[in-house]
Write a structure and sequence with these properties.
Number of strands: 21
Largest sheet: 11 strands, mixed
Shape: globular
Distance between the termini: 37 Å
Helix content: 10-25%
Mean pLDDT: 91
Radius of gyration: 20 Å
Number of domains: 1
Amino acid sequence: MKLMDENPLNLPSASDPDWRFASVRKYRLDAVQPTVDLPEDALQDLAERSRFLDDTSGHAILAGNQLSAPIHLQDSAINLGVSLDLSETPCEMFPTLGGQQFLDYNSTNSRTSICLNVPDNVELQSPILLVHWNDTGVALPQVQVKTGKYSKLCLVEIYLSADSTPGHNIASTQVQAGEGSHVSRVVVRNWNPHTTAVHLEKLSAQRDALLRSININIGGGTIRQESVISAEGQGADLRLHSLSVSGEDQEFDQRTLQTHQAPNSRSDLLFKNALMAGGRTIFSGMIRVSPEAQYTDAYQTNRNLLLDPSAEANSLPGLEILANDVKCSHGATSGQIDDEQLFYMRSRGITEQLARQLLVFGFFEEIISKIHLPDLENKVRGWIEERFKT
């Protein structure tokens, strides 16, 4: 595989509505080569650096497109019929929000995908951890998750850079929550500032299923996240939350679609962004309710905290309602740190930098507290704190 075409992805123009406000040119893959296999000692080092959770039901660690260590699954999970494997079958296609060429590229060129299956009536007591390390070239992670009826799963996906080398990451994740199941998912993206990435997600919930997904965006250069969440069964409940810390020459572009295809379903979206000097964020979200999805209850909120006059936050919320008995709302707000709060803290001997950091943590705590994994919550807080030291 050699990526030397002038424009191998046939990228859209900035005038494309699906790419409004985005720095499209930064997603080009001109002259980018595929990742190279790392030596054994480098793989072992990355495996050691992947100990983010004290207790897991299993884990898979990848460096680029190769396993950094053998996939591990606890005997207790294996005995219950849980499977965590690599598959050579390409990921299934699903609707995107402008990034179809990236999904096609991922499906065509990725070597393998991680497949996690949890059978009916199985409740995993500890999380499944997936760690994806980026190195040189373009990494192409694929994750496919299916849970059976009345099962329970906590999934953690972490995306990191192995070093300061520039890289690309084009990832796809599909999660299908079976009838009555409870799925909790946390995604942390903390690449180096020279990374360009696209992450395409399709999350669906069947009848009476609860699916929660939290996206934590801390590090990276130009990052696009597309999330399609779908309530496909009556009584389905989907919750999509996110926090992003954007700084100098950093752009987080988040596009979402909440679709309701069955009655009495619910979705709740809350995206929070804190923007430092030179940071850019884009949020474009749509709630779409089909005619048969009566009694839908759907919410969409985007809040931006501007920490510097040079920061730029763009918000494009929207509704498309085809049913007549629903409760749906959307909103977006942008504001600066309260000067009175900042003055109060500084008058008590707290430096301005630390005061701003504490106020940002207060802004983010609503999202961080939803992780419900104390060791990961503390790690996320530490990574955010590091951003304020750079």
